[in-house]
Design a protein that fits this description.
With 121 residues, the chain is mainly α. It has one domain (3-111). 79% of the residues lie in helices and 0% in strands. It contains 5 helices and no strands. Helix 3 packs antiparallel against helix 4 and helix 3 (40-68) packs parallel to helix 5 (96-107). The chain is globular, with a radius of gyration of 16 Å. Residues 112-121 have low confidence and may be disordered.
């Protein structure tokens, strides 16, 4: 598979993931409230954490791209993404909102950018 096809597949999967993360909580709101034992306000905080973090993560990403270029920024993102993938394995009690923050920060990578401090362990 050539590099262009792989790039298009990666961008497509990022877009699909983005739509799923934004749509699924709206579809399953009543089930999520019941299973997590939270109110509508609590669910609003959980679902609002993703877009808010995604937007905030774009600010340092733009600065990093301008200052250091694409390759170092992409490497920082890759390392951050790996760290975020390992975090649930070593953290027994992770907050649901924190998980959505991490997912949003890592997803910035699928948009061709990087997050220097995507997750804190």
């Amino acid at each position: 598979m050539n590099l262009i096809a792989l790039s298009i597949i990666a961008l497509t999967m990022g877009h699909v993931f983005s739509n799923a993360v934004r749509t699924l909580p709206a579809i399953a709101a009543d089930v999520l409230q019941r299973d997590l034992g939270i109110t509508a306000d609590g669910l609003a905080v959980l679902t609002g954490a993703f877009p808010a973090t995604f937007a905030l993560a774009m600010l340092p990403v733009g600065v990093a791209l301008d200052r250091w270029g694409v390759k170092p920024t992409a490497l920082a993102l890759l390392l951050s993404g790996l760290r975020c993938a390992v975090m649930p394995l070593r953290c027994r009690r992770c907050d649901a909102a924190r998980g959505r923050f991490v997912r949003a920060a890592v997803q910035v990578r699928s948009r061709g950018s990087a997050v220097l401090q995507g997750c804190a362990g």
